[in-house]
Write a structure and sequence with these properties.
Layout lengths: L23 H6 L12 E3 H8 L3 H10 L5 E3 L2 E5 H9 L8
Antiparallel strand pairs: 1-3, 2-3
Helix pairs in contact: 2-3
């Protein structure tokens, strides 16, 4: 049986790009060193109430009063660690919409 010649060159030492590969210059243009930002954990109303040692009704009243900042996702309130720490320290944080 006769050996067939491959359609795509697998030689990476060539000075021109082969099919399915990119040159080293294209790789250097990418910002590969950037890492994704760290995602902050979000707590729901019950978890925030447990952390603050109060009831979920108290949490909702603090939201309405503007004392506790939160995010509303899908009709539910979520609190980041920075929101809870800001409430405990008395530093207001603007709510993200």
């Amino acid at each position: 049986m006769k050996k067939q010649k491959p359609l795509v060159s697998l030689n990476t030492s060539l000075n021109y790009p082969t099919v399915g590969h990119t040159t080293e210059n294209n790789h250097s243009k990418r910002k590969r060193d950037k890492q994704m930002p760290e995602i902050e954990k979000l707590y729901n109303t019950l978890e925030a109430a447990a952390l603050l040692k109060c009831g979920s009704d108290t949490i909702r009243s603090k939201i309405r009063a503007g004392a506790l900042s939160c995010r509303k996702i899908g009709g539910r309130y979520f609190f980041s660690v920075s929101n809870i720490n800001a409430y405990l320290s008395g530093t207001p944080i603007k709510a993200k919409k």
